[in-house]
Amino acid sequence: MNMHQVPGDRYNGLFLTQLSQPHIVVNQQVWDQIAAKLPQEYAIPDFRIINLMMNAEPSSQRELG
């Protein structure tokens, strides 16, 4: 692990589902920037996005001729 790689579990608090996956490493500089810019109560995925996905109409099916 190089100096900028840290366990992904360090950022579990940003996610709705906080599963430990110790084999995943992430770039600390990138994730610190992401965490610093998110609103305090924000979680990934965002509830607004989940609601949009749940309420979206299914794509129209096209016949493949």
SSE inventory with pairings:
Blueprint: E1 5-7, E2 25-27, H1 28-37, H2 47-55
- Measured by DSSP, the beta-strand proportion falls in 5-15%
Structural class: alpha+beta
Name the average pLDDT: 85
The main β sheet shows up as:
2 strands, antiparallel
| Widest sheet: strand ordering | 1-2
Task: Report on this structure.
With 65 residues, this protein is an alpha+beta fold. It has helices at residues 28-37, 47-55, and strands at 5-7, 25-27. It has a two-stranded antiparallel ribbon with strand order 1-2. The radius of gyration is 17 Å and the shape is elongated. The termini are far apart. 0% of the residues are buried. The model has no long low-confidence stretch (mean pLDDT 85).
